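User: Could you check the structure of this?
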Amino acid sequence: MTREIRIGDRLIGDKQPVFIVAEIGINHNGDVNIAKALIDAAVDSGVDAVKFQKRTPGLCVPPEQREQMRETPWGYISYIEYRQHLEFGEHEYRQLDSYCREKGVTWFASVWDEPSVDFIKDFDPVCYKIPSAALTDHGLLRYVRATGSPVIMSTGMSTMDQIRAAVDVLGVDDLLINHVTSTYPCDPIELNLHMIGTLRDTFPCPIGYSGHEVGLVPTVVTVALGACLVERHITLDRAMWGSDQAASVEPGGFRRLVMYIRVTEQALGDGVKRVYDSEHRSIARLRRVRG
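Assistant: Sure, the predicted structure tokens are below.
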């Protein structure tokens, strides 16, 4: 069985290079210049794509949370105002679209509601991302699927029954499923990386991984477990203000992550036992009885 999906000009799946995504998300804190600096850091790391998040705060923030007050870089304001400060509009996205084209990097976005799908559609996206929070919103899933574009779906906070129900809505064509645990940052004991194998055994589509842990090792391990897409949040500084910063990777760490993934891909090989040319000197020097 071939597990492949085409995103832009790239095939993603078994026997293809791992597709590495730097999740900028909301780590830009509503500042286009920070977003551009994060794009620069991601490109410098050698990623395949960067990702943003698009919400309509009036739809996505539950009514009981809208007037809750909190300290923010914009002062002591309501939660709905805070969410509005984080959102980029068309002017900002036009800048980011142009900047990504200039830098030669693919970008796409998580869409949290139907107006956000319409908004991102104007940028002719290579795919849409369904965030874990929206996995049970079957109306949104149908709306995204109706675009005809490839879909990446994250599975944090979800049971297997909920995941199956979402896949029933989306179908498995042009679908990639990410294993996720939606805790920021996530304790290693809750990463449950063997879920990658469970998802591979359950669904005939490519499986990826979106990580929120501290450190790089678990993310690299997912490549050996069969993840064909890897996504981590990127930040300029983990001490910056913002809910996702602590679970993110700084630029130097992201460069190492990409390097470790590429080395792991090479090291995995194809599973066919062979004697390499480089071993012949060792045979002559070390093997006393030759069969």
